[in-house]
Write a structure and sequence with these properties.
This protein has 14 helices and twelve strands. By secondary structure, it is α/β, with parallel strands linked by helices. It has two domains: 243 residues, Aspartate Aminotransferase, domain 2 (3-Layer(aba) Sandwich), CATH 3.40.640; 128 residues, Aspartate Aminotransferase, domain 1, CATH 3.90.1150.10. It binds pyridoxal-5'-phosphate. Pyridoxal-5'-phosphate (PLP) binds next to helix 3.
Length: 383
């Protein structure tokens, strides 16, 4: 299949049309070998030596992700965190990096803890404000700008093209955590980003039964080779079965993401003016601060993630989550089942999440059922 001649839905549904030449199987086998045979003349003509560095189980999933993101190369990792931290570990102690104040909590913790201790100069800024970024970036010294859009858990939006322009003018690389947008809605590499990262745990796999991560690069360059070396040496490598599961999950990516977006838009509009709701945070609402930028860089929907601030503060929010029946009280996102989470309880001290905030991951159930369940939970929380 020529990925340039067909739509991304077709690329994903057929996993690039792969057929096993030997058996005619239309789904790939699971390669589990940890090691590869050396040729009698002492060469490794297969190009593979040992499965910590590389594994044929990655080939198909990486090729599909490359095609979907329009990148040059992709690399699977054992988790989203393994993928994200590989980018920072490919830098050198002393390098200056910019990251957002509002971002995925575990990565922010790692940046402020391990990465800072290790010598990276990590500066957290208001990434949605280009003026703040222009003021903070240090030409020649800032090596990486890391953004997440829409960003956990307030779903703030960063303009990828504008940020890429500012980063490149200063000689820095732009990496985008696009987990929430998915390649269905946003293509950061076509907007000027150099690297795109996904927690494949979330929408890409989509079934809450796998931890995985991926990086895709716009070009094969020195930084990319350092990143690949981090994976091979530190061993944050995905397992064979997990690679196979991810490829299977991605076959339905477009259907799932479009279903979640459609329901999320309806749910956001339904609760936006609700008497028991303080505010709905969702970039698809015309009044949302990032709506104009999101409308420009997200195509076909605004994602399946939103937050609701409950009237009555923290206790009311926790009571709403306690009273949902369909919405499952759990962390994570991007699965077929809808999840609800009191975010401040997870993030703890220093969180930008207000105490009354409930994070919602909209699944692919019927939107009417999801709305009815939240309605009854809100009523019972206030009874
Ligand atoms: C889940 C998540 C991660 C981390 O991925 P893991 O697979 O849990 O390590 C990073 N960024 C975002 C936006 C996420 O939602």
């Amino acid at each position: 299949m020529d990925a340039k001649k067909v739509h991304p839905e077709t690329v994903a549904a057929q996993a690039l049309g792969w057929v096993d030449e030997r058996t005619r199987a239309i789904t790939p086998p699971i390669h589990v070998s940890s090691t590869y045979l050396r040729d009698p003349d002492n060469q490794y003509r297969s190009g593979r030596v040992y499965a910590r560095a590389d594994n044929p189980a990655f080939d198909q999933a990486e090729a599909v992700l490359c095609a979907l993101e329009r990148g040059a190369q992709a690399a699977l990792f054992a988790s989203g965190m393994a993928a994200a931290t590989a980018v920072f570990q490919a830098l050198s102690p002393g390098d200056h990096v910019l990251a957002p104040k509002v971002m995925y909590w575990s990565l922010r913790n790692w940046l402020m803890g391990f990465a800072s201790h290790w010598g990276l100069q990590v500066e957290l800024i208001e990434m949605t404000d280009p003026a703040a970024m222009r003021a903070a970036i240090r030409p020649g010294q800032t090596k990486l700008v890391w953004i997440e859009t829409p960003a956990n858990p307030l779903w703030t939006v960063t303009d990828i093209a504008e940020t890429a322009g500012i980063a490149h003018a200063a000689g820095a690389v732009l990496a985008v955590d696009s987990t929430v947008a998915t390649p269905v809605l946003t293509l950061p590499l076509t907007l000027g980003a150099d690297l795109v990262m996904h927690a494949a745990t979330k929408y890409l796999n989509g079934h809450s039964d796998l931890i995985a991560g991926v990086l895709v690069t716009r070009e094969d360059n020195e930084l990319w080779q350092r990143i690949r070396k981090v994976r091979a040496q530190l061993g944050g490598t995905l397992g064979s079965f997990e690679s196979w599961l991810l490829l299977r999950g991605m076959r339905t990516l477009h259907l799932r993401v479009h279903a979640a977006c459609t329901s999320a838009q309806r749910i956001a509009e339904h609760f936006a003016a609700h008497p028991l709701v303080e505010a709905v945070l969702y970039p698809g609402l015309p009044g949302a601060p990032g709506h104009a930028v999101a409308a420009r860089q997200m195509k076909g929907g605004f994602g399946g993630m939103m937050s609701i601030r409950a009237k009555g503060g923290e206790a009311a929010a926790i009571a709403v989550a306690a009273n949902t029946e369909l919405w499952k009280r759990a962390t994570s996102l991007g699965g077929t089942e809808s999840l609800i989470e009191h975010r401040a309880s997870v993030e703890g001290a220093g969180t930008p999440a207000p105490p009354d905030l409930l994070r919602l991951s909209v699944g692919i159930e019927h939107a009417d059922d999801l709305i009815a369940d939240l309605e009854q939970a809100l009523r019972r929380a206030h009874a």
